Amino acid sequence: MVERDFTIRPIREGDFPQVRAIYELGLETGHASYETTGPTWEQFSTSKIMDTVLVAAEKEDPDFILGWVSAAPISTRQVFHGVVEDSIYIHPQGQGRGVGGSLLSTLIELCESRGMWAIHSWIFPENEGSAKLHASRGFQKVGTMHQMARMTYGELAGEWRDCDLWERLLATPE
Ligand SMILES: CC(C)(COP(=O)(O)OP(=O)(O)OC[C@H]1O[C@@H](n2cnc3c(N)ncnc32)[C@H](O)[C@@H]1OP(=O)(O)O)[C@@H](O)C(=O)NCCC(=O)NCCS
């Protein structure tokens, strides 16, 4: 068994200020999302499938959130209800410690156990860390979508940016 110095648990509303701050630290890289600011709790909790939102907390300091992962629906069409999109953000102090890998593996198991059959991930081609993380958990890059949106900040500010689409197939439900 792998000894870990963090624990994974479902999100609680009181975690949200840290969850939002970790998201905004990710945005500051300029290679995590087109978004410019974090959501409100209302926006977050209505856009995610809340029972898939997990946080990793420091084992020695359980109030310190190291990172989070979530799944959200890819479509409002009922026929696609088993296909979700992931988001994953790790605090700079938590990166490189296996937190992202553990959260993503846990999300995959959770989604499969809930009868979902695919997870999509949108990753900027420049985000090598996220691509490596997803590849390490069995995601495959299926293609590149072009000029999805104009980036408004960071080193690619002003450029119409491409985004890679990755997928992780899960067992199909009975
Ligand atoms: C990308 C990110 C989620 C990775 O999380 P992490 O906790 O540092 O990743 P881990 O330590 O669990 O590493 C998981 C795997 O990915 C690889 N990896 C992670 N970051 C990497 C990097 N920058 N370069 C190369 N490989 C990397 C690791 O080698 C590891 O592979 P392994 O399990 O086969 O050994 C994290 O850097 C982050 O939050 N970045 C900012 C926000 C962001 O870009 N989110 C994704 C938006 S699509």
Description:
This protein is of the alpha+beta class and 174 residues long. The protein has a single domain (6-169), classed as Aminopeptidase (3-Layer(aba) Sandwich). The protein is 25% helix and 31% strand. The protein has 4 helices and 7 strands, in the order E-H-H-E-E-E-H-E-H-E-E. It has helices spanning 16-27, 41-47, 99-113, 128-136, and strands spanning 6-10, 54-58, 65-73, 83-90, 118-123, 140-150, 160-169. The chain has a 7-stranded mixed β-sheet with strand order 1-2-3-4-5-7-6. The longest helix is centred in the middle third of the chain and has 15 residues, at 99-113. 29% of the residues are buried. The mean pLDDT is 97. Coenzyme A (COA) binds at residues 26, 29, 32, 88-90, 94-101, 123, 127-130, 132-133, 136. Residues 6-172 form the N-acetyltransferase domain. It comes from Corynebacterium callunae DSM 20147. Pfam families: Acetyltransf_1. This is N-acetyltransferase domain-containing protein. InterPro entries: Acyl_CoA_acyltransferase, GNAT_dom.
